[in-house]
UniProtKB/TrEMBL annotation, chain A:
Predominant place of localization: membrane
Keywords noted in UniProt: Cell membrane, Membrane, Transmembrane, Transmembrane helix, Transport
Membrane in keyword set: yes
Listed NCBIfam families: PhnE
Gene Ontology terms for molecular function: ABC-type phosphonate transporter activity
Species: Salipaludibacillus aurantiacus
Membrane topology listed for this record: Multi-pass membrane protein
Lineage summary: Bacteria, Bacillati, Bacillota, Bacilli, Bacillales
Annotated family: Belongs to the binding-protein-dependent transport system permease family.
Name listed for the protein in its UniProt record: Phosphonate transport system permease protein
InterPro entries: MetI-like, MetI-like_sf, PhnE/PtxC
UniProt key word RNA-binding: no
From TrEMBL, chain B:
Protein's UniProt keywords contain Chloroplast: no
GO molecular function: ABC-type phosphonate transporter activity
The protein's name in its UniProt record: Phosphonate transport system permease protein
Keywords of the record: Cell membrane, Membrane, Transmembrane, Transmembrane helix, Transport
Organism: Salipaludibacillus aurantiacus
UniProt similarity note: Belongs to the binding-protein-dependent transport system permease family.
Gene Ontology, cellular component aspect: plasma membrane
Record InterPro entries: MetI-like, MetI-like_sf, PhnE/PtxC
TrEMBL record, chain C:
Top-level taxon of the source organism: Bacteria
PROSITE patterns with a match to the protein in the record: ABC_TRANSPORTER_1, ABC_TRANSPORTER_2
Protein name, UniProt field: Phosphonate transport system ATP-binding protein
SUPFAM superfamilies in the record: P-loop containing nucleoside triphosphate hydrolases
Organism annotation: Salipaludibacillus aurantiacus
Cellular-component GO terms for this entry: membrane
Key words, A-Z: ATP-binding, Cell membrane, Membrane, Nucleotide-binding, Phosphonate transport, Translocase, Transport
Amino acid sequence: MSSLAKQIDTPVEENKVPDMYKDLQRRKKVILKNRLVLWAIIAALVTWAWTGTNFSIAFIYTGTANMAAFIFTDLLPPDFSAFGRYLQPALQTVYMSLVGMVISVIFSIFFGFMAAKNTSFHPAIAFTSRAIIAFLRAIPALIWGITLVVAFGLGPLAGTLALGLSGIGILGKAFADVLEEIDQGQVDAVKATGASWFQTMGQGVWPQFKTGFVAWSLYKMDLNIREAAVLGLIGAGGIGYTLQGNINLFQYQQASVGILMIFALILIVEYTTAKIRERLL
Amino acid sequence: MRPYIDKKNKMTQQIYLGLFIIFFIFSLLQVGILDERIFQAFSRVENLLKGMVPPAISEPIDVAGAAVESLQVAVMGTLWGVVFSIVLAMFAAKNVSPHISISYAVKAFAAFVRAVPALIWALLFIVAIGLGPTPGILALAVNSIGMLMKVYAEAIEEIDTGIIDALKATGASQFQVVMQGIIPSIMSIFISWSIFRFDINIRYAAVLGVVGAGGIGWELVRASRVMAYDEVLGITLVIFGMILLAELVTRFLKDRADMATLKAME
Amino acid sequence: MSEVVLETKDLSMVFPDGTQALKNVTLTIKKGELVSIIGPSGAGKSTFMRSLNMLNKPTDGQIVFEGENVLKARGKQLRQIRRRIGMVFQHFNLIKRSPTYQNVLHGRLGYMPSLKGGLGRFSEEDTRQALEILRRVGLEDQAFKRADELSGGQQQRVGIARAIAQTPSLLLADEPIASLDPSSSENVMTYLKNVCQEDGLTSIVNLHQVDFAKKFAHRIIGIKAGEVVFDGSPKELTEGITNHLYYSK
Ligand SMILES: Nc1ncnc2c1ncn2[C@@H]1O[C@H](COP(=O)(O)OP(=O)(O)O)[C@@H](O)[C@H]1O
Ligand SMILES: [Mg+2]
């Protein structure tokens, strides 16, 4: 470095503040540029979607107005004579949710343990399990339902299996993530006593896994009741089928009983799982 | 006393467990899982798979168009869901709401909206305003509001009153307190929930077609009705790809933004 | 040097739930004084301090700050009073997700038009000043970090920097070291005292540690159950008085 360059450098070194101001401007520019790019992308996406769907702000108003009119003139008052017709499908929805949950819990324990790096037998198995889970997860339960109705015919069996399958996607990932975060020290301590694989899992892993396991399984139940309520729309069992029947026949006051029952089902299940969660955790 | 209580608790637990198992077995019978069909599951699935492979798409342009429409419906549904949730959250959050009764009313509305599944909303909107993407957009928006308004309002309610005091103490105006204190504090929570909701909306958008609200779901139902198994798989794969692509794009954008912030703050 | 900065007369505060937090507090603070208010928790120290810039509104009495009647001030006038009173908080109260320098710049909001300040369009001069203040509190290397990445002691120094950025004539600090470990406490108190002396600031610091108060202040005021029970120099604060302040009923 020439002595001239040194001379120029020195005062800058001595007085840091002007230097810092430039630095600050530079940093702000980085953030600003990034924000502009992001907003441009978002704006482009929205424009694309807006024109593609021929949307208009007026639709929000007309949509709301029509919906209100529909609710107050057609849906209300509910015709409670339809209650009897909805009772059996409503119960079926609960059965489907429960069995679907148990199926997904059982398989998710297996896949979760195989997918978590620290409990799996081999990295290759872990990777494969993660991939299977990711696939099951990416496809919504209703899509599984459509395929399974093709295979197993109309009725709750297809819906239940759909809930089970998509549940593995959610719970398998959740369980694997919980397992990967457990404290290895405690597990090693049990292992060091010469415990077998099963004993290590039971004594070292399970106590740490339990909380996440219970919370996620109950959460799955909350999700299932929502999914099960609509699986009937594709003929996969449950209350949705009866609801669609009523709507197709323009029996809206009966349909509103179905909607109220779905509403009630969801609230009851959420209340129950919240109580169970409280008790167990 | 203690062992007795423990024993009693254990008993209660076992009774609950027993009841659960009985109810579970009853449910098993009710959903027909012990139906003969489940014992033919292997051959049924085998048949299905044979029919599915190789996957096919008979009208690729229609399917691609439907997939694009689903993505667009998801974007629009999320947009309006976010916009209305932000506005409503201001009325729902106790600490900024004009009146506590307004807060309760708005929260009750959100709870109601949340407890009706998105697809049911779609069904109702179709009856109320007709077929096409608009009922799908509105259904997703309404369903998003149920969830986002709740989490946004909670984020606002959890704002540390200390930071408001601190900015007021500098002589900042109300507008400055909101812009410089409140928004930076809740922005990242808002963004991550909105992205999360976008991911959910894409999944819903993919199935909205089932009730006739446009998009790729309808193509799938159509294929399944004519028992075109290979097409069912083909369209399912398209849906899978569509969801994956959208998730990758949002993640990429978020990572990019985080990276830039990190670079500017190191 | 005997110019009066702040005067309170018969200041009383009753919270809506009926708690009487202040009873007829009458005090005069002169320019350049470093005053420490001590007293057990719940004595009313915070309430007194927060009354001075109207973060809570006293129910009775009078506050005169640099000749202005604080309790009558509204809107713009109140903002103009507040910007001349810097405040440091026990829990720092920084905007955690904003960078450190931005938190210091917040001290300038009271001097800016509402819109400009809200949008964060701080002038070059203010920004340079903020960076310079950060240097003074030894945080020039942390200027661009997110505030919550700093340690507790550092965050409190940012809190001090924000108050200093207001170019205040009075600095209030409400238990500035109550959530810090002993060594950061020393450090923060040293910075606080240096800054006050360098800028000739008048300051009031609530402390519940008597030893820190004695070391820091020229004048100590003891508050108990909302009343001033001691007002004098650190030397006059005998053990008997502290015992009365903290332990007797
Ligand atoms: N917002 C409030 N509402 C009701 N009472 C309060 C409130 N804030 C403080 N108090 C009461 O006022 C009294 C003085 O409190 P404070 O000024 O915080 O004391 P200190 O700062 O000395 O610990 C206490 O009895 C406290 O419980
Ligand atoms: Mg206090």
